[in-house]
Amino acid sequence: MTEQDRYIPGVPCWIDTDRRDPGAAVDFYRGLFDWQVEDVMPPGAAGHYFTARLHGQDVAAIGSLPEGAPADPAWNTYVWVQDADETAERVAAAGGGVVSEPTDVGDAGRMAVFTDPEGAGFRVWQPRRHRGATAVNEPGALNFNELHVRDLQAADRFYGTVFGWDRIPVGDGHAWALPAYGDFLEQRTPGMQQGMKEMGAPDRFWEVVASVSPITDAAAPRWTVTFGVHDTDAVAARAVELGGRVVVPPFDAPWVRLAVIADPDGAEFTASRFVPPNG
């Protein structure tokens, strides 16, 4: 850990997506969020890995689909861990699947790909040089990671074992809380917890690392992402102009205005504008 780290073990820290045509996906998201994009792969590399930035801060990445990998466009959630190999053992012991064993990614870090017992895929990141996203919770950056699953109790057992998460009620829904995270954030920003209480945040909201929603239709269990936006309606309209589609039109919910959007490859994400109660 360094003084500048924004994460502790058990906290989602990075997102990326693998595409057959990463350049086309770059064009869509750059047009939607005004990302600055750089291919960080060395000259002559077999594929691309475009790191997206806002005002010089890392937000996400769009990479080439590995040779022979099935095309399943989606945004991948990475959880910060102390030791990817030990995490792989916990995943297997808890009934999850190891899709890709822990492997080094140059000097950037060490990663692995897993599935939970219902088949929802996620990744872990043991950081070295790359310390995760440095811009979050602002327009054009990651705002939230959400698990969609059928058996909440089974998810409690699995993610509690692997990451130490507790499921807590938040409004009409549920979220994953990590007790140590609230203390970590308070150290970084003294007074943060009291400020959230004064805004009306529910108990333990400062410990929340992700959300979880029960699946009530035929959709597959999965992890999804939410991006912050200035204007949900404008972003939904712009997504259509860029070749995407609106899956769920903009609507209001407590504290936010949301829309679910699919990019031209079909990968879905949520656009969210923060609307405080007094706003």
How much of the sequence is in beta strands?
A: 35-45%
Order of helices and strands, N to C?
A: EHEEEEHEEEEHEEHHEEHEEE
Assembly type of the chains comes to single chain
Architecture of the largest domain in CATH?
Answer: Roll
Low-pLDDT sequence parts = none
CATH C-level name of the largest domain: Alpha Beta
Strand arrangement within the widest β-sheet reads 2-3-4-1-5-8-7-6
Structural category: alpha+beta
Mean pLDDT across the residues is: 92
Which radius of gyration do the C-alpha atoms yield? 18 Å
Give me the CATH fold name of the largest domain: 2,3-Dihydroxybiphenyl 1,2-Dioxygenase, domain 1
Number of helices: 6
Q: What count of domains describes the coordinates?
A: 2
Q: Name the CATH superfamily classification of the largest domain.
A: 2,3-Dihydroxybiphenyl 1,2-Dioxygenase, domain 1
* Total number of strands: 16
- State the major sheet: 8 strands, mixed
Indicate the percent of residues in helices. Answer: 10-25%
From the spread of the alpha carbons, the general shape counts as globular
First-to-last CA distance? 37 Å
Structural description of this entry:
By secondary structure, the protein is α+β, with helices and mostly antiparallel strands. Helix content is 22%, strand content 39%. The chain has six helices and 16 strands. The chain has an eight-stranded mixed sheet. Strands 10-11-12-9-13-16-15-14 form an eight-stranded mixed sheet. It folds into two domains: 116 residues, 2,3-Dihydroxybiphenyl 1,2-Dioxygenase, domain 1; 133 residues, 2,3-Dihydroxybiphenyl 1,2-Dioxygenase, domain 1. The N and C termini lie far apart (37 Å).
